[in-house]
């Protein structure tokens, strides 16, 4: 049976991706040496390259290659008024239920059976759901004395951190801040700065990439639902009468992005979010969903947010957020189209789309058919034999030449026999393996092996 057929028959399982990511140095459980911290993940040497390649591609496509886009990098800690005005303090919540039998806590709207505890299996043990705010709260500065006290530790909690001793300590509510739960607000708070400094014509956008934090009730499914993750967001400011054309523009751009990531078009689905499920301020939302191994789930969202955010800022800050059209007296608060991309969900979709298994010479092979521009390593360079100094020296020369042309994307690999090296490079998605052998010493030619076809070609070093 051909390798391709085998590939198509097997659907990718989440365990396949998690195991490859760990085995090959892409993604590890956060703090794993101490047993982990739920909902956090660390990127290893290859994971950080893949993630950066995705983020840099996004920045290039949506910021660098466009004349109507401005990049910002706002602070993660922001004045608490930001989150009060945006509605996050009051309404950024998920419904939390607690099992009266085992005390397990769950997100009500994600339960398979709303009457049955998924931990202990008891039925009818959930009381009323309560709104659980997902923002991580923190305190800025050595917070002054005030009338609020830190509560009792939970029953049975192990008081290693001396919280009991802190019970008498108080804090100033004005010192409260939050780890941002989205990057969007750091864009809105810079809207006025960008308009005042650059005075762009409408429509224009402000883009930001960076960490976001959500105290998810049940983080799960590998990096899909994490407590600390990365977003890439754009707020695209438009004339209120022209939002529809900009919305369509962004539908097209999102699809171009999926293509650039190498996601098969048939695995991405547009979900027109019905009015009842949309945020109250949104007049139109599309969720782009992807066929993950865990099912069809949200990859990213595209929303028309009206003037909700800027009008809130204007009200709370008492500063005008109006835009004056150049050369006219026309003034208004711009409306906003927001494409909101999640890095982890994009990365997971990339891994799922690239994962392949086939058979080579009677042996199972796993490889990642990553698009070349995303692959962490573009060229692996090997001397055929590790113990022949003349081959090693020549290979070092080739390695240096390729590294100069492709900084950070060339790997030196002389571990194990050549077959093992190929398998290892296949698993991390390296499209080209360059091998230096005895013929290289004679005519400066090398073999280049193609990851997907496993075919080898001879070519001169200058032609690589
Ligand atoms: P969900 O319904 O899956 O919780 P959401 O609708 O709350 O997601 P948004 O607030 O629209 O998500 O966030 C924009 C994007 O940020 C999402 O489409 C997703 O790509 C990413 N994202 C949101 N929450 C998480 C998370 N906990 N872990 C990883 N990525 C996330």
Radius of gyration of CA atoms, rounded to a whole number:
26 Å
DSSP strand count: 25
CATH superfamily of the largest domain: Bira Bifunctional Protein, Domain 2
| CATH class membership of the largest domain | Alpha Beta
Please give the share of residues in helix: 25-40%
* Cα distance spanning the termini: 33 Å
The share of residues in extended strands comes to 25-35%
Could you report the average pLDDT, rounded to the nearest whole number? 92
Strand order of the largest sheet: 3-11-12-18-15-14-13
pLDDT < 50 runs, ≥5 residues: 1-9
Structural class call reads: alpha+beta
Could you please say which CATH topology of the largest domain applies here?
BirA Bifunctional Protein, domain 2
Number of domains: 3
- Global geometry: globular
Largest sheet descriptor: 7 strands, mixed
SS element count, helices: 14
* Bound heterogens, unique: adenosine-5'-triphosphate
Do you know the CATH architecture of the largest domain? 2-Layer Sandwich
């Amino acid at each position: 049976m051909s390798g391709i057929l085998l590939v198509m028959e097997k659907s990718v399982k989440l365990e396949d991706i998690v195991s490859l990511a760990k085995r090959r140095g892409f993604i590890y459980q956060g703090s794993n040496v101490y047993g982990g911290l739920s909902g956090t993940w660390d990127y290893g040497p290859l994971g950080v390259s893949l993630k950066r390649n995705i983020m840099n591609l996004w920045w290039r496509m949506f910021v660098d290659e466009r004349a109507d886009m401005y990049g910002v990098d706002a602070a993660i800690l922001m004045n608490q008024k930001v989150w009060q005005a945006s509605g996050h303090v009051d309404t950024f919540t998920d419904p939390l239920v607690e099992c009266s039998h085992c005390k397990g806590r769950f997100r009500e709207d994600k339960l398979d059976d709303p009457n049955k505890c998924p931990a202990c299996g008891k039925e009818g043990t959930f009381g009323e759901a309560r709104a659980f705010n997902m923002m991580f709260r923190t305190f800025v500065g050595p917070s002054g004395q005030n009338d609020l006290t830190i509560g009792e530790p939970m029953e049975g909690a192990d008081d290693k951190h001396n919280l009991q001793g802190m019970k008498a300590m108080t804090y100033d509510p004005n010192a409260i801040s939050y780890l941002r739960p989205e990057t969007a607000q750091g864009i809105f708070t810079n809207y006025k700065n960008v308009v005042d400094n650059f005075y762009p014509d409408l429509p224009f956008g402000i883009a930001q990439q960076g960490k976001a934090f959500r105290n998810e009730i049940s983080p799960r499914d590998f990096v899909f639902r994490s407590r600390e993750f990365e977003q890439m967001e754009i707020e695209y400011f438009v004339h209120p009468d022209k939002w529809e054309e900009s919305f369509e523009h962004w539908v097209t751009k999102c699809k171009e992005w999926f293509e650039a990531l190498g996601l098969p078009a048939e695995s991405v689905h547009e979900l027109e979010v019905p009015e009842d499920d949309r945020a109250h301020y949104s007049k139109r939302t599309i969720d782009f969903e992807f066929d993950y191994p865990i099912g069809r789930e949200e990859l990213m969202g595209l929303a028309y947010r009206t003037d909700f955010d800027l009008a809130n800022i204007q009200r709370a800050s008492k500063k005008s957020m109006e835009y004056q059209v150049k050369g006219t007296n026309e003034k208004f608060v711009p409306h906003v189209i927001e494409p909101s991309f999640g890095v982890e969900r994009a990365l997971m979709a990339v891994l799922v789309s690239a994962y392949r298994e086939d058979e080579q010479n009677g042996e199972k092979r796993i490889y990642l058919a990553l698009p070349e521009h995303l692959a962490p390593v573009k060229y692996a360079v090997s001397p055929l034999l590790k113990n022949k100094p003349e081959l090693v020296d020549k290979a070092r020369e080739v390695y240096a030449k390729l590294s100069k042309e492709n900084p950070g994307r060339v790997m030196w690999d002389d571990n194990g026999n050549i077959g093992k090296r190929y398998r290892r490079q296949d698993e991390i998605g390296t499209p080209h393996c360059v091998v230096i052998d005895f013929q290289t010493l004679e005519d400066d030619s090398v073999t280049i092996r193609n990851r997907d076809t496993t075919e080898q070609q001879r070519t001169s070093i200058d032609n690589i």
